[in-house]
Amino acid sequence: MPDLHDIRAISALFDLRADFLHAHPHGSGHINDTYCATFDQAGQRVRHVVQRINHHVFKEPLKLMENVDRVTRHALATLKAGDSPEAHRRTLTCIPSIDGQPYARDAEGNYWRVYPFIEGARGYDELETNEQAFQAARAFGDFQKLAATLGGPRLHETIPHFHDTPKRLEALEAAIAGDRAGRAAGVAAEIAFARAHAADCSRITDLIAAGIIPERIAHNDTKLNNVLLDDATAEGVCVIDLDTTMPGSVLYDFGDMVRTATPTSREDDPDPANISVRLDRFEALVKGYLSSATFLNAAELENLAFSGKLITLEVGIRFLTDYLDGDVYFKIKRRTHNLDRCRNQFAFVKALEASMPTMEEIVARLNPRS
Question: What whole-number distance in Å separates Cα of residue 285 and Cα of residue 155?
Fold first, then answer.
């Protein structure tokens, strides 16, 4: 991270109309550099999030910020039009730079942005209750519903083909052929598992291509800590971390909620033999999501349970690909870390397959149209 004293200079690039007091690193993200900065604004202490965009991961930060600015402006305008009493608390808002842009560049060429700090709410790295799962899923549904009415040109793809699972499978085949780390012989079972699920990989992309499932604006990174929950009421207040907000399928968002919220063990547990699906947690997600995602069509509803299996399979394929490539993308803490992650995800795919009839029954029972 840059020296903390730089945050004063960075803040001066934005139209904050307040005096910088101090700042400290904030949050648990691994991509961007994030600070909570405190200012004096006409005698009142106010906080803002000051964040450096990682332009090595996000190659086109101007397009990224155009997406974020369009989505958040539209969300704020829609909330205000609906007389929301907390419109500015229920969406991120880009503070303009002194040049009137939703970002600023420092002397080293880094891209920065500033948001008002959402007070009285926080994200949870691990969910503690089914009510939290319900609230987070409802908040993501609200976010998608707001984004669904955004007009104008198509959003930019900040990471092209991010959830294109067939292309992830193609990348795996290339990694197998290249075998750069000399590891392919030791993961024959995992390779066979991925290949056996090729039809699952293309199910959603085929439906999108056929026009049966619509392309929509999706968040694309719905870890449950990307929703802030109110400290007093536990209500889902604001969806954050919008860097991957772009065209896609809303099923990818729900699927990642299932992948991260419903397994009974950690993603990198080296012994996934006993992993299973928390069906109570899954039901809470479905209830919360369907209470707000009222725009879904019949095909999206039919594939809601399947989406968790798809995204878990996709992430497992990505872990296996990185392991074969020599661990060049995901950070690891041990030599077999990516392989452990892959095996965990594939074991969870099996658990989801075993639970699929029950999960589909849950969706059908809670579907307001059935």
Answer: 27
